[in-house]
Structures are given as C-alpha cells and as structure tokens.
Design a protein that fits this description.
Length: about 260
C-alpha cells in the first residue's frame, strides 16, 4: 500500500513506519634507537688497541603498529573484532543529522594497515540522527559496530559474496519524509546485525532484544532522503559493496556521528 504524500514534518511518519516495518528499515618517524652499553669502551690498555674497539649492534626496531582508520578513535577501534578485515565506516555529520558519508576499508591481515577500497560515498541515516539505545519508531540509527553477514533484494543477485536472498517481498512503494519516492529502495540490501539473527535472510523478523528495540536495520539503496533508521547509499555503490563484502574477511559496519566515532 502506498504511503500518502506528506511534507517534511514528522506528523505522518507513523504510517510510513508501519508500512516499512513489514520488510525492514527505510536504518610518523621511526622511534629513536635506545643506546646499548658496550663493555669494551674504556681507555685502551696495554693489551688493547683503540682501533679494535667494537660498537654494540643497534637494537632491532619494533614492528610498526597497524595504521588506524581515519576518524575512528581508540574507543571505537577497540570495538572492531580482531578477525575483521573489512570495515564499512558510516560517519554522520552531527548527532541529530541524517547526512553521512561512507568508506569501506580493508586489510590483508591483522598486522597490516587499513586501506580504503571503496568510497567515499554520500549516504543517509535515520531522520533524527543517531542513538546509543535504538527503539522502534525513534527514527534514529543505532551507533555501534555490527557484523555484516547476509544480503538480499528485489533484484537478482549482482554477484554478491555474502549469502543473497532474492525475493519480491523486498518491494516497497510510497514516499519518504521529503516526498521522494521509496520505490527501489530495497532492490539491494545488506542486513546490519543489530537485533537480528545472523545467517538468515534480511527479511527474517527474529528480534533477540525484543520487538520494542526495533530491527530491520539495513544498508540499502538511497532514495534521496533520510531513513527510518537504516543507512542508504546510491544504487551503483550498493552493487559495488555487494560484490566486495567478503564473508571470509568477517566484514563489520562501524556507524555513528563523527564526534562519537572519534572517541
């Protein structure tokens, strides 16, 4: 059923929330060497020769630490699982803003540096911004670090590496908060493992935290406006993302406003 056209005001949002809940969201230099003592460095004695004094070998330099991810502070990076080798970072402009940007980072192994592989892309998040305690209908996207294990969409699999569920139930119509058409928003989706069970279709409605904590928080096709709580990126980038996210690399999403992610 189409959602009636309405102005940006949120008075009509509950109707849209009800419709979309049936399928998901709309959501430096190297360190200086330490001198090493050399036992033979005294004055030359009768049985010694200054030319034979040997300098101690410098201590080996420590292995460099992996470079961090731009914009992510130590508290946030500490939440990224050690086994994760792909991180999709979605950074909101402000705590109450629905404008954000997205970059996918990758590393070959835990000791290597993170490198950007996709993006930066424009993105949208929840209409009211971000929250640490998402509840159904609050129009905010949940901050945090979440695994990405399952994908799907109305359109055929574009070559996704994650398990992909093609299903007509991903169809959606109606209008968004600014009157923009929602049609095609769920042509491609990646489920964000917030209040869901991993290893099942994004359409699965199991909610381990309870229905009141919301669910159906996805990465999906951008419709040109804010979401109910999901993250959205342009369609061509969704296809790139689906063809790049690799379950063998244990991908996760790190999402939230810039101020919090920088802690």
């Amino acid at each position: 059923m189409s959602v009636p056209r309405r102005p940006p005001a949120l008075l009509a949002a509950p109707l849209l929330v009800l419709a979309l809940l049936l399928t998901g969201c709309s959501s430096g230099a190297a360190p200086a060497e330490t001198p090493v003592g050399a036992p033979g460095l005294g004055a030359a004695g009768p049985e010694s020769d200054a030319a034979s004094v040997r300098r101690a070998s410098p201590a080996p330099e420590p292995a460099p630490s992996p470079a961090g991810i731009p914009g992510l502070g130590p508290e946030t990076l500490a939440q990224v699982p050690a086994e994760a080798r792909q991180v999709f970072v979605v950074t909101g402009e402000e705590a109450d803003s629905h404008q954000s940007g997205a970059v996918l980072y990758s590393r070959e192994e835990a000791a290597k540096s993170w490198q950007p592989v996709l993006g930066p892309w424009p993105a949208h998040n929840g209409m009211e911004g971000w929250t640490d305690h998402h509840v159904a209908g609050d129009l905010r996207s949940p901050r945090g670090v979440y695994p990405l294990t399952d994908a799907g969409g109305r359109l055929p699999d574009p070559g996704a590496l994650l398990p992909y569920d093609e299903h007509p139930r991903f169809a959606v119509d109606g209008e968004g908060f600014y009157g923009e058409p929602l049609e095609g928003s769920f042509d491609y989706v990646v489920a964000i493992n917030y209040n869901r069970t991993a290893g099942v279709s994004p359409l699965n409605r199991t909610r381990p935290l309870g229905l009141e904590r919301g669910g159906g928080i996805w990465i999906h096709v951008d419709h040109g406006g804010p979401t109910q709580g999901c993250v959205s990126v342009p369609e061509e980038h969704m296809e790139e993302l689906l063809r790049t996210l690799d379950p063998a690399m244990n991908p996760v999403i790190v999402m939230g406003d810039a101020a919090v992610l920088g802690r």
